[in-house]
Each structure stands twice: as C-alpha cells, then as structure tokens.
TrEMBL record:
<dbReference type="GO" id="GO:0051539">
    <property type="term" value="F:4 iron, 4 sulfur cluster binding"/>
</dbReference>
<feature type="domain" description="Radical SAM core">
    <location>
        <begin position="23"/>
        <end position="266"/>
    </location>
</feature>
<dbReference type="InterPro" id="IPR004559">
    <property type="entry name" value="HemW-like"/>
</dbReference>
<dbReference type="GO" id="GO:0046872">
    <property type="term" value="F:metal ion binding"/>
</dbReference>
<keyword id="KW-0004">4Fe-4S</keyword>
<keyword id="KW-0143">Chaperone</keyword>
<keyword id="KW-0411">Iron-sulfur</keyword>
<dbReference type="InterPro" id="IPR013785">
    <property type="entry name" value="Aldolase_TIM"/>
</dbReference>
<dbReference type="InterPro" id="IPR058240">
    <property type="entry name" value="rSAM_sf"/>
</dbReference>
<dbReference type="InterPro" id="IPR007197">
    <property type="entry name" value="rSAM"/>
</dbReference>
<dbReference type="GO" id="GO:0004109">
    <property type="term" value="F:coproporphyrinogen oxidase activity"/>
</dbReference>
<dbReference type="GO" id="GO:0005737">
    <property type="term" value="C:cytoplasm"/>
</dbReference>
<dbReference type="InterPro" id="IPR034505">
    <property type="entry name" value="Coproporphyrinogen-III_oxidase"/>
</dbReference>
<dbReference type="GO" id="GO:0006779">
    <property type="term" value="P:porphyrin-containing compound biosynthetic process"/>
</dbReference>
<keyword id="KW-0349">Heme</keyword>
<comment type="similarity">
    <text>Belongs to the anaerobic coproporphyrinogen-III oxidase family. HemW subfamily.</text>
</comment>
<protein>
    <recommendedName>
        <fullName>Heme chaperone HemW</fullName>
    </recommendedName>
</protein>
Amino acid sequence: MPTQPTGETPPLDGSLPASAGTGADARGLSLYVHVPYCRVRCGYCDFNTYTAEDLGPGASRDDYRSNLARELDLSTHVLAEAGAGDREVTTVFFGGGTPTMLAAEVLAGVMDDIRDRYRLAPDVEVTTEANPDTLDPAYIATLAAAGFTRISLGMQSAVPHVLATLDRTHDPEKIPDVAKWIKEAGLELSLDLIYGTPGESIDDWRRSLDVALINDVDHISAYSLIIEPGTKMGAMVRRGELPMPDEDDLADKYEIADSAMTAAGLHWYEVSNWSTSAETRCDHNMAYWRNADWWGFGPGAHSHIGGVRFWNAKHPRAWSDRLLAGDSPAIGREVLGESTQEIERIMLAARIDSELRLDSLGQGSDRAIRGFVKQGLLDAAAVDEGRFEPTLQGRLMADYMVRILTDYVD
C-alpha cells in the first residue's frame, strides 16, 4: 500500500483554519465514502483495502455503518465551524475496495445517514463502484430505491487470462447480464477498463473494448496499468516474472480505445474518460479535477476543503478507534499555498477537454502554446478561441505540456 503523505498534525477535533471557509458558497461540495473491504486483494492494487479475514470486531463490515455515522457527525460540525457548511451536496461517490461487499441495505442505510446530516441537491449524482460478481437484480433495485444514480462496474478486461494476471475473480461472461440489470433499474452504467496488463495482446484489448461497447454503456474509464512498487505485481516485475508495460504498446492501445469509443458514440472529456454526452460524465470526478470541496469518509480517505487537504488514518482499526474516542480520524493535513493551488489547477484542467482557459495561464506561456500547436499537440482552432484542447497525440503528451506550462507559475 502507498505510504501516507507527510504534513502537519491536525487538531484532535478536526477543526479547520479560518481560511477554509473563505468563498465556500461559490464552491461545490462532494462526499466520498471509502469502503475498504474486498473479497481478494488484486495483485496490481495499491489502494487501502483489506479482505474480511484481515479485520476483527470494531473494524469489520458489521461495524462500518455506525463508525461512518460518527465521522458524518464530526464532518458537519467541522464544516459549520469553518463557515463551509450549509451547502448542497452535488455528488456522492462510494469507492474502495469493493463497496458492494457490504449488503445493499447497508449502503442504502449509509445514504439515509448522509441525508439526515446533509442537504442533497435535487439532481445529486450518487455512484458506487462494484465488482460484477457482487450484484444481482435485487441488490441493484435496492440501490436504485435508495437514490443511487450510477454504478461504476469494475470490468477491467473481458479476457480470462488477463483477469487472472490481475487477480480479478469475476466471471467476464456475466458482464452483459449485470449491465442489463443496471440499465433496467434506471441507473447509468459506467465501465472501468485497464489496458497494458503483462501478456495482453492487441487482440485481447480489442476484445475487451468490443464487449464493453456492445452493452448500453453511458461512460467508460480506461486506464493504463501502473506497476506500483509495493504490490504483488510490482514484486513479480522486480523478480523478472512479469515484464513492465511497454510505453509504445500503451500508446497504441490508447489510440485503439479512442477510435473504438468514438465510433460507438462516446467522446473523450478527460484523458482517460469517455461519455455519451455531457450529462453522462462523472460529475464527482469533475469535482476533483476542478479542485472543488470534498470530504472523504472512511479509513485512509482524503479530503479537500478550501485549500486544506487532510487525510484519515489508513487502517480500519485506527480509524474506528479514533472515532470511538470522540476524536477526528484525520492524522495529517496540508494547507496549500497559492502557487501550489495554481500548479494543481493547471495539472488537472489540462487533462479536460477545453477546461483550461489560455488567458488564465502565466505571462509568457503563449510561446509554449504556439509550440504545442506546431507539434500537433493542441487543436489550432480551439487555441484561436482561447481554449486548451489537446489532440489525440496531445492527450498522450499531457504530462509533458503540463510540465512546461507550470514553469510560468509565479
């Protein structure tokens, strides 16, 4: 698992500096709920997850809702004291781990607990990630009745040997059935894919895209595999048992994905995300990319309120013990300076189609922009209109452009 960032120690009561409330009314508020439980721990995953056997009483699935309710109570108090409360919540996202390792009634109950404490927007987007093997029509119907609006299905691949390398346990043959159940319940369907797994051929990747696109999908996220050093897969690569993903192969697969999705009526709006329309984009992720305010609940969850970033104790036992003692579960925080916030704004906005306004960049950046156009990385017509619109090649080179543009931040 990744180590927590370093930062200052926050107050035990979780209180925020006065600056966190400045301008809060003009910023959106989103909630993230981290559910750390998984059936098995996938070899590539470095998220904060645990199997049921890892955890005892007090930190188990049976204790999760009551522990979370304590953090919900704390959050509303902290936000009110900072002058950042009393705002509509526009998105709620359950991530993990595998949130659907909890009973559907528990997830529905957590949504009840959130409604008891927060004012939700009439069109609030409520998403949960899910493993295909944890869902059936009754489970999905319970979520729909509880106000969930999207399910983000961890498909990853349609090819058995690729799933085996990733340690994914679900049956790929079940994907069309689960997709059908989700749409029949009136929920939006998002599929998550991973490309670049060792041993995955171009034909394997095309097969996964074909299976994803024959379903009535609203949204697809496609991420290249990243080998994290602290994972089982990272150790296998280090020992020479698996090869590192090849950069040229990853670029080829990205281009294949973009072509296939465009042909199927999905259009990119962020470097790794495609949707059928602006209405089916993931608004929760857009809140992250726009540096809006969000509170992250659960073990290891991160939050960002008014330029203050803070994070919870990682282990479910440490998280629950702090809450049971009446303390905040936050163990570290960072108050971001103006230049850091500006660098992050550029880093995030540059990945989104036409999100970054050229007139918002530092003095002298126009020369770099002209260079990007000459290199074929930015759309020339969009630049004439003051918009930063990466071409297909530009999306592959987004990090390169960001490194240059952030040099102009004072």
